[in-house]
Amino acid sequence: MRGSGVSSFGEWLGDLRQDTRFALRRLARSRSFTLIAVLSLAVGIGVNTALFTYVQATLLEPVPGVAAADRIVELLLTRRGQEQQEWAYPDFQDLREADSPVESLAGWKRRDGTLNTADGNERVRVMHVSANYFRLLGVAPSRGRDFLPAEDVGPGEHPVAVVSHDLWRNRLGEDPDVIGRTINLNRTPYTVVGVAPEAFKGHQPTSGNTDLWVPLVQHPFLSGPRDLARDRGSQWLLTLGRLRDGATVSQLNAALQTVFARLAQEYPETNQDRSARAFRFGPIPAYGRAGSVIFTAGLVALTGLVLLIICGNVAGMMLARSVAREREIAVRLALGSGRGRLVRHLMVEALVLALLGGSFGVLLAFWGASAASSSSIAIDIPNVSLRPNGMILVFSLGLMLVTTLAIGLLPALRFSRPELLSALKDDAGGGGRRVGRIHRLAASAQTGLALLLLVISSLFLRAIIEMNRRDLGFEPNNLLVTHLDLSTEGYETLEQTGVFLDRVKQSVGSLPGIASVSIADGLPLDLVGNFTRVSRADQLDDGSGRVLVEFTRAGEGYFQTIGTPILRGSGFEARYDASSEPVVIITQALAERLWPGQDALGRRLRFSVTRDTAQEFTVVGVVPDVASSRATEDWPHVFVALRQQFRPRVMIVARSSGDASALVRPVQSAILDVDPTLPIPQVVASASLVARGTQGQRSAARMAGGLGLLALVLSAIGVYGVVAFAVAQRTREIGLRMALGATRPQVLGAVLLDAVRLAAPALAVGLLVAAGLSIGMRSILLGVSPADPLSFGSAAAVLVLVVLVASLVPARRASTIDPMVALRSE
């Protein structure tokens, strides 16, 4: 028995080697088919491998350095069913003291800071955390200690820090005596008490590295003029918890309902509609995780659909090729070859194609991931490695095996049991059998999908063209912009900040080549918009007359600097300060909206700049319409005087009289001349901000265009496979028609007409679906009608042309059939 088993296995291996050699010879002879099939499978398997690489790196890998992550939870606040990630500090303290399934609760808040060293100032990412933060995460410092419980009380009284391993190595010179060393953070001395382990970059690795951790009580929100330690109305803190042994998330959620129901009774003004929910800890933050998972699932479904379409196309082409072998297979069966042997024989060819295409696709996926990681246009995902590993290779191998079944099983099962008598008599194969409905339906569906994507990409392309033609209302060329967050640089009072900014304006403005300088908190297309609702002050504010607008805080000379003319009135002047009457400058669109046919100068508006009660403002100027903060929006705009409505996060805007790029370093030096302790400011050209502001639309257009092109190619392959299969199966019928007098042009036209009939239903459905989607995308197609006839017409024309070209090769083959050869079996 043992010898028989070994002999059978040896025979099986011998048959496999023989089938593999035969498959390679057949594929080598059919170079066009092999090239199309391998490239198609490479695209499908490569895209799916690349996506799985991303999914594994961002969703499946545990957070490095965190222990017992299954007991850690993230806590989100909810208000009227809407999730919010930030808590009020008193609510956090109340939950800490309440009896709940949480063993420990930690608060944290990330903010940028300035590390002052002997070599200069550097921007660092700081995390203010509760003293139990590291113990909650199961993270033990590699040197020194973490924070003590006593360092969790007394705002501003515990200037100690735990530094990251990277900061200790790169900026502190791997000082072995770093524990006890003093570092200066935001001009405040901090004592280093610990160094985090090398693997731990922070509990949210996809959000970027953390450079150092300091006690939560050191946060300026808990001391100084803001003092949010007792303010239940201000939400700014994020929270983590560790469950007790045996406790569950559902038990914690029930306890949270109880705690917040009590707080709602005790503090109805702030906590009436407030509650909280717990979520499992993971590499993707809980806030927004559902959207990320849904988006990723959609991508997985889309790439899976692409691979399924490719498999259908390749299977169709294999069906068309197998028609010519039907007589050969019938002879094999007649001579006694088993069906299983024939199925294996036909499946080996599919396996060879899948392995060739899959190997090429995996190489493409890893090359693409490497190129994307080093590309300047790549999406930055910190601490995520897209390098190949064992799990990814196993996934790819499994994908190749599934692909083998998908492309080879149907042809193998169909042609391993042909009608023997018919096949032996008819070397044209199959006579009157028609193409299967599923095959035709799949090819038609691909055509509709291709049309849908082509229409969407055409709409985006048209929107970008219109965007480039649009008058932005300002001149972005030769404009330099610097962002400053003075709240982190020790400027606590309005007086200190005002003096500093005046000196910066004077220092930058004195540079040769600088034409004008101003200060504001925004620019058109900067992606950071402030919104409010305004109404006429001389009318009753019942809500119906309010207009949603964007607003920008601007200083003197702002419009001159950005290149926006003042149509009527004047710009902001230094006399418009906190002690004077509040004033605004509005765009022409808002003036016509509120006072049609009237002069808006001297009129009064009512709105709120902050969350405080609405104020009345006097219109002192009108400017042309300017672009909104986002390229897809077109809101009316209100400009308020910066000195009257100050905020510490501002931008310095400078207009150069020549090449702006040559002034980047001089502007940096001019700012540091005013305050040498500042970090080196980042100075960028406004044109790059405009490019970034339209990047979303351009990326969407490229993605839609790429998917449309891919769908177009797949559709062409699918149509080609269907038509080629139909021609191969109708060889005798076509020969009979030509013997009865049909001309070659008539046969050619009939085959092309059949291809158009195949695509026509899908074209109609695709146009209807595209029309519905384009209406839903109206908000991001600024300047382009959702029913743009040029976009729809060009997409349909291109697709019809591709269908005709794809069916032309089998149509010409049909028109050259020799009637005598086709009818020889008769």
Describe the overall structure:
The chain is α+β, with helices and mostly antiparallel strands. The chain folds into 3 domains: 23-61 and 297-425, no CATH class; 73-282, no CATH class; 479-691, no CATH class. 48% of the residues lie in helices and 17% in strands. The strands form 3 sheets. It has a 6-stranded mixed β-barrel. It has a 6-stranded mixed beta barrel with strand order 14-15-20-17-19-18. It is globular and about 100 Å long. 40% of the residues are buried.
Distance between the termini: 51 Å
Radius of gyration: 35 Å
The number of E-state strands comes to 22
Shape: globular
Identify the strand order in the major beta sheet.
3-4-9-6-8-7
Helix content bin: 40-55%
The main sheet comes to: 6 strands, mixed, barrel
Number of helices: 23
Unreliable stretches, pLDDT < 50, 5 or more residues? Answer: 374-380, 427-435
Quick check: average pLDDT?
81
Task: Estimate nothing, just give the exact number of structural domains.
Answer: 3
How big a fraction of the residues is strand? 15-25%
Kindly name the structural category: alpha+beta
